[in-house]
Predict the structure of asparagine synthase (glutamine-hydrolyzing).
Amino acid sequence: MCGINGILHLQSQKKVDERILTKMRDSLEHRGPDDKGLFVENNIGFGHRRLSILDVSAAGHQPFLSDDGRYVLVYNGEIYNFKEFYPELKSNGFDIRTNSDTEVLLKLFQLHGLKMLNRLNGMFAFAIWDKMEKKLTVVRDRMGVKPLYYSFYNETFYFASEQKALFTAGVPLKMAQDGLEEYIFNRFVAGENTLYENVKKVLPGHIMSIDEGGKVTTEKWWNLKKEIQNQPEIKNPVEWFRETFDDSIKLRMVSDVPVGVLLSGGLDSSSVLASLHHQKYKDIQTFNIGFKEKEHNEAHLAKMMAEKFDYGFHTMQLENKNLYDKLISATYFQDEPIMHLSEPHLLAVSQMAKPSVKVLLSGEGADELMGGYVRYKALQYPSLLNSIATIGNLDLFTNKPRYEKLTRYAQISKKSELVIFNGSNIYPKDIEENYGIETLPKNEYRKQIYKEAKSLYPDNLRRQALYFDQHTYLCSLLDRNDRCTMGASIECREPFLDPRLVIGLGSLEDKWLFAGKKWKFILKSAMAERLPDEILKFRKVGLSAPWGDYITKSPAFKEELESFSKSDLFQNPYFENINIKKLVQNLQKGDDHMTPYIMPLFMMHIWMKSYVNKF
């Protein structure tokens, strides 16, 4: 697990400046404090920071060169099934000299080229330079667990695990108008674009090749829609799920360093723990973030689960000055304004785990694969959304904030927009009323994914929303997990995102997801004998926090709220119609309905003040 970066000067023999490459590399030191390496040859340069997980010896040092000297590799991630390839590589004349997956990855590339990608079970972002063909190839894993950013600037191609390395190299930090619009309407920028002009992401499941002349080709090596369509029928879904999930956990325990669990006390992370216990793993440490507010707290359930399986349990709470400090740190590691609002908590719990473990298992992905969010329920009867009273009487939504949110959501009339804005906290009409912004973002990538979802699941809004989220919202969660855990120099692994589970679940009938009161039916059925009722029936809390209270009542935030009202942010013409003083005053008077409108702006203010000024 690592931070990677590189520079390729195009159409010139300009030599890579080693000092710039080194600065880029070392801006990612938190991603890899154990080792560092450089490769520079004329107009190409690679940098690498290493967090040693597999083969912690010097043998795993990167950049990694092929035995014949033709290829150079920098790689971030883990190939969990790397040992499966030993017999094949040996029978083809390759010597295996290390215990690292890096060597296997490069030798598979030498043997099969990029056709080997479909056989890898793992998370990865890597770059390979072919000295003979003078060609650079960059690749990203299926679901986008590992990040990879790039920029074409001054006839040079820069790439890195985090945007800050690109800014360190001199790529200008400039906000993109499209990105800003998407951030306001959709909470994050989806697809290959980012919040920044001239900085893009390599899309999940994609390959990008750049030759020395600057010719760029992009291809999709993994297509979830096609994979779901080609999935053979699963005869016994519950048995299949349990066996595949256990195998996914087993693969993700492959490590030469200790592995722990991020344990919320919810169904997903408890299922991870139950599988470990079922497979007789011993001495597992679990890490939890608790809240003093009862309605946000699941720590008691997490503790109960850890004790039930005789595993170690560590918990903490984050408040006042500590919360403020972690917010500033999390914004730095995120490179963008934080939008899930749980980033400071995840960073803090990862830092707490660091002395004990180097790898954490997370329950991420289960909600998007199996229908775990209440917001999907609104799509069950789209025709009834016009009649909020009817929906309310169906007892689907009981507590007031959710009902209030539903009444706002119901103002959306187009089916496509019901899916596209399903993951938003505020909707187009709210934004028009509170921000004075009327024009919707272009959302080209989101529209393209929606079209794909609609063709795969015609007339099924719930399934469309799952597929849509797997390509958008989930990517932002994975980015959050990567930044917060790697900010503490810890690797995060997501067992629910094993490709066999992602594809298989996508092929099942609705009843396996949406049956029962709280959905995720197949997971509950598979875990029924392993988990107690308190977990199987507990109301989902998720990693949520009462930010409205934090920023109005916590001494650490009071001063910040004052400067927020006068923030430079509101000099931006896009925000000229926002009466921020009025929004803040309403929040201070105790109007909680203001929180969703204030938080994206407040986090952008924090980002401008603490991050943008650094570059």
Q: What stands out?
A: The longest helix spans residues 595-610. Residues 226-371+474-537 form a domain with the Rossmann fold fold (CATH 3.40.50.620). The radius of gyration is 24 Å.
